[in-house]
Amino acid sequence: MPGGSSHFLSHNEVVIEESVKYLYINMISEPVMAWGIILSGGLNGAGDTRGVLRNVALSLWLVRIPLCYLFVVVLGFGPVSVWWCMNLSQFVMASLMTKRYLRKRWLSTN
């Protein structure tokens, strides 16, 4: 392949550098994200759809979006701060799902 594998999607060096940063940062949250998705899928399957929706909404609307706004708009940080905010919100979501699962309140939702 001409240009090597780093030019598969773009020839722009800035795009390539930012993509590599994103992949490294995102790689850190993959196990946590997988854990949260597995638990949310199990809770959804058990009928606890409202609990899952509430936990996902809380992690997005009260963690990810406000922190992204703070770091990008207010403080002027770049895209890296958004990716770290995404990691943090994934951790919060997985924590909320774990807490919900371990409390077993979802057993009484049926």
Report on the structure:
This protein is mainly alpha-helical. It is 76% helix and 0% strand. It has 3 helices and no strands. Helix 1 runs antiparallel to helix 2, helix 1 packs parallel to helix 3 and helix 2 packs antiparallel against helix 3.
Supply Rg. 18 Å
Count of β-strands? 0
- On the 0-100 scale, what is the average pLDDT? 89
The structure class reads mainly alpha
Biggest β-sheet description: none
Features:
single chain; 110 residues; mainly alpha; 3 helices
Brief sketch in words of this structure:
The protein has three helices and no strands.
Write the layout of secondary structure elements.
Elements: H1 13-45, H2 49-74, H3 79-103
Helix pairs in contact: 1-2, 1-3, 2-3
